[in-house]
Amino acid sequence: RETFEDIFNHNCFNFCQSGDLNDDLEINLFDIMILVNCLLSESCNNCSDINEDGSVDIFDILYLVTFILDQ
């Protein structure tokens, strides 16, 4: 049986700004470093799915880099 914590942590109740993985209200190189680290350590959460395609992968890194370069 799913608990509230399961739903909060794993479903659509993410209160994160897409791309701001360290919650500093800026999207920058530090967010890219966090994303690369979570991919390498396989410890990503739903907030790491930057392009919102249902998986966290290299395409999320590329999306984030492109977003930062376009700022």
Structural class: mainly alpha
Shape: globular
Low-confidence stretches: none
What distance separates the N and C termini? 44 Å
Largest sheet: none
How large is the count of helical segments?
3
The amount of helix comes to 40-55%
Beta fraction of the residues? under 5%
Give the helices and strands as they follow along the chain: HHH
Q: Mean pLDDT score, rounded? A: 84
CA radius of gyration:
13 Å
Number of strands: 0
Describe what this molecule looks like in 3D.
It is a single chain. The chain is globular. The model has no long low-confidence stretch (mean pLDDT 84). Helix 2 runs antiparallel to helix 3. The chain has helices spanning 4-10, 29-41, 58-69. The termini are far apart. The protein is built from 3 helices and no strands.
Any key phrases for this structure?
mainly alpha; globular; 71 residues
Per-chain topology:
Blueprint: H1 4-10, H2 29-41, H3 58-69
Helix pairs in contact: 2-3
In short:
By secondary structure, the chain is mostly helical. It has three helices and no strands.
